[in-house]
Amino acid sequence: MAKEREKKLYVAILGNYAAELKLLLTTLLLLCVLATFLQFLPSRFTISASDLRFCISRVTQTTPPNATSSSPPIIKSSLTSLPPSPSPPLPPPPSEQLLAGGIIKRSFNPYGSAAYNFITMGAYRGGLNTFAIIGLASKPLHLFAKPTYLCEWVSSAGKNSTAAGYKILPDWGYGRVYTVVIVNCTFPEPLNADNSGGKLVLYASTSGGGDASFNITDRIEALIEQPGTLDTSLFTSKPKYDYLYCGSSLYGNLNPQRVREWIAYHVKFFGPRSHFVIHDAGGVHEKVLEVLKPWMELGYVTLQDIKDQERFDGYYHNQFMVVNDCLHRYKFMAKWMFFFDVDEYIYVPPKSTIKSVLDSLSEFSQFTIEQMPMSSKLCLTSDYGKTYRRWGFEKLVYKDSKKGIRRDRKYAVQPRSLFATGVHMSQNLAGKTTHKTEGKIMYYHYHGTIAEKRETCKILINSTETAYEKTPYVLDTTMRDIAGVIKKFELRMIGDRLQKTRQ
């Protein structure tokens, strides 16, 4: 009886702890499987005590099942695998060595990279056998070395041709880290005459510049012509536009009202066969874009986003590269091409037109334009209380009359005669240049007004002559007198959509 009683007691105990035994055995089995699995992991994978404490701390942050509504919110987290430990840094190369004879040899160890060898902005045909590649290159490379360029035409028909690249440096002396380079590729025969397609390849070699131990040559596919896309009539046909404006880089916080006035004036001045190429280097913000949009919709304005050029430290937002790209991009689309800024207004005297003036200068490939510098602060007393309603060129009516000083001139060209261009004139052209244009054509310059957001009129004067800050000024109402005509023209062309534009 006693044995049976003990047996029943043993069975009862096992029955009471059966669940706990199952859990214990399952846990032991999982630990054995985990121990086997860990043997196959990489040696760098370890679980430290700090890792376990991190896991435990995360678990303790969760809300217990019986938490009330006043308990803090549940914090859910997921553990991500830690990145592998970084490789130990390489020991620095020896800075010096002791050679036989007691000579100490010093070493120079370069890190990082220098300026790029070549940065392309565009490549364009200049005819049946010639091309222009526009870009930037390291200024020290061109200043202290003699980099070379080789051009290759890779024909889709299998016939290749090579030519030496002739470089032009239109901003020489102005570049910063980078200087502008125009590479002219002129081949001995017409290329892609059968319109089968091909591509222009530029080989840019440092030729001992930079690191003299290396002669690095970069292969650049500058231009690709798909089969059937070459229109050779472009080189001989009448240009699409009589006048095309190539704008420099626009940057900064521009005044939309000043831009509005400038574009309305010049569309009226140049007429229906004109076009304006605007380059946005960060200056065409939302309000300025609203001003340009109506003229873009009418086909007068092309806006190009060139903000990426800010990565490369060139002179004045790389304006030399920008105007050269515009020159070659539109070379065969315009009879005359103008280069000036958005605070400058081209003007011809009464009884003449822009057409009659340029017809009289047709024998020249280039002419420069006289400057009329206007005060950006002096206005008429009669405008008191009304200056905010006046347009900029309408209320700024005092001209700098100082004599005997050289002033910057702007210019216009017949683009088919140019190989490269600058900001104030071109020195790389075929044909003649004239500067004797006084009395024929001029430009009124309102310096410092394009980015001014406050009222420009600082001093009101009731006189035909005055002196301000040691500079003599005379009253000149030439532009003021035509402001009403420009306002009516804008209203007729685009309606009243810009009437609420302000500073």
UniProtKB/TrEMBL annotation:
Keywords: Glycosyltransferase, Membrane, Transferase, Transmembrane, Transmembrane helix. Its EC number is 2.4.1.-. InterPro entries: Glyco_transf_92. One of its GO terms (molecular function) is glycosyltransferase activity. The chain crosses the membrane at residues 21-41. It is found in: Membrane. GO terms for cellular component: cytoplasm; membrane. It is an enzyme of class 2 (transferase). This is Glycosyltransferase family 92 protein. The lineage of its organism: Eukaryota, Viridiplantae, Streptophyta, Embryophyta, Tracheophyta.
